[in-house]
Design a protein that fits this description.
Largest sheet: 5 strands, mixed
Oligomer: single chain
Radius of gyration: 20 Å
Order of helices and strands: EEHEEHHHHEHEHHHHHHEHH
Number of helices: 14
Shape: elongated
Structural class: alpha/beta
Length: 293
């Protein structure tokens, strides 16, 4: 992967609402969209934190970015920027900032600077367009059980297999919707397999200036396909998971077929899988659920 300039945007961590449980694990996701996917997963995260959905305690953290680059390669690079920071590799920062403040950066992320030194370094970072405080808080969200993955659309890209192969080699989860994430949203409302021609779904032809076939169908039912109010989806989530399992969920098979492997994300949350690549041995799933309370 060709490394670009710093893109990771630290999201200031907000305390979890009162009455919520602390997460057993955190699932870090780098997502393709800047609106639809973040709205959905942040709503899901709030529902899990408040015990509104019957899943073990976990936290879903979306990795924000400064730019609009959304192709799979850039989505992967954003995840790797976070992993570099988490592993005390600071290559994402401009060379000038690294050269000027090399020792201080390392001490800052380890929490070894005095208060006045921290403020001084944060002010220096701002001159380079970096919010060190937010990035440090983002890196501070960590458990020993964390999961890392990307959420991408098929969109008939010709280079998807190469990116999927790379993620498999690195151990990154790939949550792919074919043709697009809106298909997963539509599953909350409609029995996809019963209502639609699967070829039409996979082709997902543009039907207007605003819509493809799938986004138009979602817009008809949900009223919008970009801004997601998770409250409208929450009570339909388990149904969507079941409907998703009725279509293709193998990430490589999704290159040629409509469907999504997002149901595997919920198997990870529930402890049935450790990753979308490999199923836990029989008998460990129930134990994992017990551990999660």
């Amino acid at each position: 992967m060709t490394r670009l300039k710093h893109r990771l945007k630290g999201s200031a961590f907000r305390s979890r609402p009162s009455g919520t449980v602390q997460p057993h694990r955190i699932i870090f996701l780098s997502v393709e969209g800047k609106r639809t996917e973040p709205h959905y997963f942040r709503g899901l995260n709030r529902a899990i934190a408040r015990g509104k959905i019957p899943f073990p305690r976990c936290m879903i953290q979306i990795l924000d970015r400064h730019d609009d680059n959304a192709d799979p390669g850039h989505v992967i690079l954003l995840l790797e920027e976070y992993l570099d920071l988490r592993n005390e590799q600071y290559r994402i920062f401009p060379a000038g900032f690294r050269k000027e403040c090399k020792n201080e950066i390392h001490k800052y992320f380890r929490g070894c600077l005095r208060a006045e030194e921290k403020i001084k370094l944060e002010n220096k970072a701002k001159r380079y367009g970096i919010s060190l405080k937010d990035l440090r808080e983002l890196c501070g969200l960590a458990t020993d059980n964390d999961i890392f993955g990307i959420v991408i659309d098929h969109d008939h890209r010709s280079d998807l297999k190469r990116h999927i192969d790379y993620c498999q080699e690195k151990g990154y989860n790939v949550f792919l919707s074919s043709p697009c994430f809106e298909l997963w949203l539509l599953m909350h409302f409609v029995d996809i397999k019963a209502k639609y021609n699967l070829v039409d779904l996979f082709d997902n032809k543009r039907v207007s200036n605003q819509h493809t076939f799938v986004s138009r169908e979602l817009s008809k039912i949900a009223g919008t396909n970009k801004t997601v109010d998770f409250e409208r989806y929450k009570d339909k989530l388990l149904t969507a998971i079941d409907r998703g399992r009725q279509l293709e969920t193998d990430v490589y098979a999704l290159l040629e077929n409509p469907g999504t492997n997002l149901p595997l994300l919920f198997e990870i949350i529930s402890g049935e899988r450790e990753s979308m690549w490999e199923r836990l041995p029989v008998g460990e799933s129930a134990a994992a659920e017990d551990d999660c309370g």
